[in-house]
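Hi P.,

Sorry for the delay on this. The queue was packed all week, but I finally got your sequence through. Input first:
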Amino acid sequence: MTVTLKPFRIGDIEVRLPVVLAALAGYSDLPYRLLCRRMGAPFATTEMMLDRYVLLAGKYRKIMAATTDEDHPVVGQIIGNEPDVMASAAVELCRMGFDAVDLNFACPVNKALRRRRGGFLMSQPRLALDITRAVLSAVDRPVVLKLRRNFRRADDDTDFWQIAEGALDAGAAALTVHARSVEQKYAGPADWQFLADVKRRFGDRTILGSGDVHDARSALEMLERTGVDAATAARGALGNPWLFRQVIELAAGQEPRAPTLAEQREVMRAHFDAAVEFYGPLKGPKVMRGFGIRYARLHPTPKKIRVAFVEVKRPDDWQRVLEEFYSPQ
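Then the structure:
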């Protein structure tokens, strides 16, 4: 496979690699974004942030909206259901230095739906567009919408097209489209033909595809089969920051290099140290347990490694797992 990797634009932001790190609740925090950038990810989105909490100068915002000079270009993603609150949160993110704002109208978790946020907006096109216009009027940065195909799998796509067309006409810089319904969550195959239809309809606009990007090969297949401007790596990038390096290798016609156990050990150690520095010695190991379970997928004995990481409670526990299971012997 040899593929020409074309840069794409979101407003005035040029992104050199058309495979990017998606927003990942609980995972796309600052330490992991920086790690993925060192592996070749040129562009990343924060974890989903509740609009009201972004407006409060507390611990939540300090952690969720943290960024550094090395973390650019970076998009701040917010979720909410009131146009004025979403607009105010977007303004605050711009003040904090984010390069673009992402409006999450796609989150399928029950907590968000019960509170009429996230994916619920896919059934409320008028409200979704009111929020979009309010944010566009309030900020001077590119605005991206995260959408799903529809709310229920049995629904037609009328609401999607109404939101997508209305948002782009109003000035949205890009759409990230997950090719499943809200109801499906992550079950069943993503409909890449729908992504191709969206790109065909909005040929001159920036469309990012989401769904079933499991590895470097599927990222390139999405680009080739759908014509979208970029593929977003979500679950496929969890515990596999090497995905972005592998995309570049595979596109050049090379066999993508799987990380050795020694390379995994060093990256995981650096990630753990960064997380402990960021979250502190008590929360850091708890956060890294989830990452460890994801990293385990690349180990020759993943089930055994998952069990070992579940038991991590202190920094010494993490180092013990690395020495026991990731040593050259």
